[in-house]
Structure formats: C-alpha cells, structure tokens
Specification:
The chain is mainly beta and 534 residues long. The protein is built from seven helices and 34 strands. The protein is globular, with a radius of gyration of 24 Å.
Length: 534
Amino acid sequence: MKKLWKKPILPIASIGLASVMFVNAIPETPVQAKLNVQSQVQTKNHLLPLGTPNLQEKRTSMNLAPGVKYTKINRGETSSKDFYTLDVAFVETQKQAKKLLENLKKDGFKNAHIIKESDRAVDDRKKGALGYIVRIGQYQLEADAAEMRNKLSEKGYTGLRTVYTGEDGEKTTGPWVVNVLEVDQDRFHGHVVPELANGAVAGKETLTQISDRKDAIAGVNAGYFVMGEKDGTPGDLAGILASKGQLVSEAINGRSALILSTVEEKANIASVSTSIQATSSDGAVREVDGLNRKPGLIRNCGGVGGDTTTERAKHDFTCKDESELIQYTSVFGEKTESGDGMEVVVNHAGVVAEIRNKRGGDIPSSGSVLAGTGEAAKWLRDHARQGMKIQVKSKIIGDGKQLKLDQTISMINGGPRLLENGEISINAVEEGFHWEEDPGFYYRFGERRNPRTLAGIKENGNLLFVTIDGRAPGWSVGANFEESAKVMKSLGAVDAINLDGGGSTTMTVGDDRVTRPSDAAGERPIADGILLVE
C-alpha cells in the first residue's frame, strides 16, 4: 500500500514575508522539496507570536490526504546579541549567589555575574524571584564555553551547564522552525491513534521506525516515558495510555491527558486519575498500584499506596514503593519484570491458574499476571490461591467525571495543560513541573526554550499537532511553556497540552522526518507515537 502523501498532492500557497536563511540546515527531504516548489504569497496576517512582530516568516503547506494539511513555518533569524555562556549554578537566594560569586573570584574567575530570574510558574503561589543564576563568560563558539567549563571542573565546580542565550526565554530574534499538522476529522477518512514502539510496552523505537512500520501518513511523538532501567521498565509510559479499549498504563494522578475519539465526539484534554482494584473471590480487596511496569519504581510519581517521596506528580523524578501489586497483560511483552516477590497467573475467566514464587514469568496471550512485592506478595499468598478468582477493575476520572473506555477512545499522557477554553492556562506547579527543593528545575524545563511537541483542539474540532525544533542555534531556538501556549492559540487552538519534548520531539510526514533531532546521537527512540493512518 502506498502512503497517501505519495499520491498527487494538492498544493496550498505558501504564506510568508520573505525567505529566511539558516546556518547548519539539514539536507532537503522529498517533502521539503515539494514545499519549496510552491508559489509564494506575501502577507502579514496570522504571524506566530515568537520574537518581535516584524520578524520575517515563511510558511509552506501541502495536503497529505483529504482533511490533513501539513505546514512548515520558518521564522526569524540568528541574533547578533546571542552567545554561548556557562551557568555555574542556579541557586534559590541572592545570598547563595553572592557567596558563589566570591568563591569564583578567589579561584581567579573574575568575569562571573549574577542574573535574577523573576519569572515563576503561572500557578505558583509563591512570590518573588524564582532564583538566581551565576553565569560566567561570553563566547561566540560553543567550544570556547566548553573550555571554560573544563577549567571550572578542574577547580571542583559541579553542575555546570553550557547554554546559548537565545534559549534563555528572554528577547531574541530566533530563529524558529515550526511544523504543524492539522486534521479535520470530518473529512479525514483514516484514524488518529497512539501506537506503541515495537507494538509493546517494553522497549523503544524511533518515530521514523514506528511510522514506517504502520505505513503512517504522518505522526508525532507522544507521551512521557521511562528512558533507562534505573527508573523502571525502559519504554514504560510515565503516565496514562489507553488504546483499543485497554488501559495500558495508569495515570500520573491529576496530570493532563489528550483524549482522542474515532467517532463523532470531539477530542478533549482533561486532568485524569486512575483507580484500579483487585477483588478476590474470598472478598478481600487490594489496590493495584500500576500496570505493565517494574514494581517499586514510579516515574513522574503521582501514584498511590504510600509512594515516597510523594504521591503528587513530580516530573523527571522516580518515586519508590517497596510494596506494590502490578498487573501485566500481553501488551507488556512476553515476560514480566524479574525479581523478588511472587506472581499469580489469572486466566481469561479470572481464575488463578498458576502460582510462581518469584517474578519474571511468561505472560499469557489472554488473561494477565499479578505480580506482588512486600505486603502485596503476602496479599497474593493469602487471597489468590489456585482455583480462586481475582477480578481487576479500573476506573478513569477526567475533570471529576468518570470516563468511558471502549474501542473508540484513546488517552495519551502529557502535561502541563497550556490552553483551556481559549485562554492561556498553564498549570505547571499543579502537574509537577516545579520542584520545591530545586527551583532551577522549572527554570530549565519551563522558562528556558526547549524543543516542544504540542497538541491542540480548535473550536471546530480540528486537531493540531505541532513541533518546535530547539537546542539548535542558527536553526531553531525552541520555545518555553508560555511561548508554546501562545503559538497554539495563534494557530487556532482553544485547548492545548504539552506532550513529551526535548530530544523526543519528532514529526514524520510519509517516509520523511521533518524535524531536526536535538540529541547528539540523532533521533531518539521513544515509547509511543500518535499516528495518522488509513
């Protein structure tokens, strides 16, 4: 089957003020070639709210299928005022910053200075400065900043970060490269669905590989996930995923999710929580802590059952619990995670068919495996004996209402929310993107510009999937949370959410990747993507 984008494409006029030159440009792809042969139309309407209004902007668009439009936007230019520098530390108080500055001067580093970071998360109840940056040097080449970093390291300074000031979140001329997919679900005869890497939870795959395997018209990377074994099962969704009538991964309770429907109902963005319980035929009830993941490690937190250090969402942090009950289904892979504890195999009728005295066994194609550690293992020994029945039920709550889960509904984790009912509404603190003990985390994640993947819903129900390249001076500087919200609003979204970004940010159109990877290793393997398929 040929992909729809390879069929005759209806060109859409390019919209822009002028062409923009970029350094370090990626080679032209077949999709880019198709965009570049289209006619140019000059207009000042509907420019992106990135940088000052007078920046040059070029838009080129093409139809991928009935109801699906792809647009590439190049905006701005490299600023002569931006440079490379070195952040020695982000500290909470001015006193700490001054003390560090004194130490640097004593060690012979006399050109360091302090920058006050005033911006806090929109929903942060605290007032005053978020913190203070101690910064040193001004370099045109990244290599020169790296040399200063080495000198400071030799003196015992740690936590050093080479940064480009165009990514600071302050005024800059860019540039920016933005990719937009718009889907009119009334006209698009295919489906917009999440797809797991390798078709299973365990393991990762690049979006290019996922898209190629499913012969997708287009796609973007989706939710947050576990990257390395120290944080759980690599490829585990760090938040909710529901697909084809199945809850694959539990929610980070209270965090936003994108909800898609294959029927006439509009898509939605809601704050979701999950509640899962196992009930034995002897009447005993036990909370199920999670689905299809390694027991004891809860990436991004927001779990249940006494997790430490918190049961609230906490981004890029792994909470722990020595006593967990985890349910595995065949979507996880062939075998459960191995380790101490015990497992019971439950058949399709809910009957306990096998008992294992350690974890790490086969997962049946129908039915499931319940794995227990600590107190949960004891619960299984007492209430999940051979021949007994165990019924596992899950409940999903979205914005205070129970959500149905059937073959037509998909749910994809993300956060924070960016737009609600047409207004900017960024709940970064509520969704765990601010660490009380380290204000620098929010500065780096939410205030600095990074690559972003965004999803939105227009008033008419059309879906928007947007990527903003970043961490590539001279190509694209990325966006912070506020800029991301403004971009989505300018594109017509009334509701919008931030999906996984950074090195994960990727968009494909047919066989082409149209984004530029920000990881030095190239395109990052991810856990799941959102695909447009026939």
